[in-house]
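I am going through a labmate's work and have reached the protein record below. What it holds is a sequence and that sequence's fold in token form. Please read both lines and tell me whether the tokens look consistent with the sequence. Do not assume that whoever made the record got everything right. Thanks in advance; the entry in question is below.
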Amino acid sequence: MVQIRRYLHQHPELSFEEVETPKYIATYHKELGHEVRENVGGRGVVAKLHGAKPGPTVALRADFDALPIQDEKDVPYKSLVPGVMHACGHDGHTSLLLVLAKVLNEIKEELSGTVVFIHQFAEEHAPGGAKPMIEDGCLDGVDVIYGTHLWATIPLGQIEYTEGPIMAAADHFTVTVQGKGGHGAQPHHTKDSILIGSQIVQSLQHIVSRRVDPMDSAVISIGAFDAVNAYNVIADTARLEGTVRTFSQDIQQQIQKDMNEVIQGVVASYGATVKFDYSYGYPAVINHKEQAQIVQQVASQTPEITEVVHSRPQMGGEDFSYYLQNVKGAFFFTGAENPSWETTYPHHHPHFDIDERSMLHGANLLGNLVLKTFENA
């Protein structure tokens, strides 16, 4: 498992550019004698293991894309691809699923059902790989699906789960303010796009605190504010870019409406114009109650798991949401923080790494979920 993970870590591929990784995955499954489909939805791989006896079909999903980040770790398995790195643990997800496939294959005569291994491309970059893979039939015949995310800031041996929303909807927006530029010494002849943009930034922060029910969670964050110009010139145009995170579709739509009202009102008060673009990203990941409770039950009975925590939802986004919109299932976090590390780096950091023992924990729990599903049928 570690060997596979370190190979993948050294050979990362960006979202929608995955070529060698899906080949590696497909070859692994073919050597096990599994039924394999390649190029599913574009670059995905789906493998099936049929047990000796009939029963339900359980899908397990792992993503395999990397990020445009320079790997700055001083380790033997450091990325060999400049500017590309597995900085979110997808190499670990793939490794644990491949080895689990091998283990389940060794006991297939005892299995009462079918296991579908969904290896997904492009989770990191919307519109993502889940939706096209579903449209290409990766969930056909599937009764239930499970997935996990190795999480480097959760202690090793800990599993975090919850019923209902576990990860947020992740939307993207841009605001382009068109003012009237001019000389910095004569601002009265201009419509200052930077001033207008600054007012928009402040006004947007009032939406969550004053228009959203305090019992509902939401985030509006501005990540970019660009108005490149000379120091003595008032900018003609300013561009803001950011993200909105919500757990409810009603709140999501309310915030989009409120943002438009606030932005239009601010800009009109300065006599400028604006273009507001809002695009929906991944929906919220909403676990099915029964399957989330099964995760808790099975995790509590898995020897390597030392603690099972009913967690609060995370504001990060994940396109596992699309699978859960189509079949029942659950998504959970597997602790991957090494207790001996002096510093734990978060996901998407140039020094990101995992305690590789976490892969065994994730594989064991997913495997036990498969067996539990077959037993309950």
